[in-house]
Design brief:
By secondary structure, this protein is α/β, with parallel strands linked by helices. The protein has one domain: Vaccinia Virus protein VP39 (Rossmann fold). The protein is about 25% helix and about 30% strand. The chain contains eight helices and 13 strands. Strands 6, 7, 8, 9, 10, 11, 12 and 13 form an eight-stranded mixed beta sheet that branches. A three-stranded antiparallel beta sheet has the order 2-3-4, with no helix packed on it. Strand 7, helix 6 and strand 8 form a beta-alpha-beta unit. It binds S-adenosylmethionine. S-adenosylmethionine binds next to strand 5 and strand 7.
Length: about 240
Amino acid sequence: MPAFPRRIVLPFAALALIAPSLLADETLYTSKEPSRDGTGKVYMGREIAQTVSSHAISWLERRDREAEERPALVMENLGLKPGDVVADIGAGSGYFTFLLAPLVPQGRVIAVDIQQEMLDFVEGRKKLKQAANVETLLGTIEDTHLPEGEVDLVLMVDAYHEFSHPREMMESIVKGLAPGGRVVFIEYRGEDPKVPIKPLHKMTVKQITREMAAVGLEFVEVRDFLPIQHFLVFRKPAS
Ligand SMILES: C[S@@+](CC[C@H](N)C(=O)[O-])C[C@H]1O[C@@H](n2cnc3c(N)ncnc32)[C@H](O)[C@@H]1O
């Protein structure tokens, strides 16, 4: 899959306007000379990637995602129950949100993003598809605004590596999860140099596992049934 063009990333300076604390001195994070697709901000040894802007909606909705990312297979492997509350964090255009919605007819899907334009697009599709159990929620770069202790499953597809405040975001996600609730990451495999994605937009199992341990999430499993992505599962301890 081709990496997305540079013009559809959100300039780091624009993110700083959304949250002035981005440029503040934070002990969790260090800085370096930004790489080509990086922000120059380093968390637990990895440089954070640039955020994809809402101009990328058509790229997120491209047809060839089906063959590359096998979204139907992802859905099958989530093990959702009809009443589950699911949060699609970094939902973008809602590509995965609307696949999740029919799987939780008695539950709901909360699509969270920091770009209102993305959520407007999701709202438009919600009307078209009459997906009454989809809600949109505008988060900040540090806070999902999820209701506390209610979410059974958080899904993050191609998103976590570009969160400018991964530690704060994960703490907010952990707060939103019900005890025993799961977090599933779909990320391009960073261990495999043949995966045709820019390095900062891939992640290794080792790196994600370290970052989740830092917020108290338990590793459950990694399933490599997807062509070029990891399917990684973590759980909030039940008590
Ligand atoms: C590459 S897109 C992926 C969208 C979607 N998950 C998909 O696979 O089609 C990443 C999305 O994450 C969003 N994002 C970045 N930082 C975020 C944060 N801190 N909280 C919520 N969303 C965020 C961006 O606005 C963007 O829409």
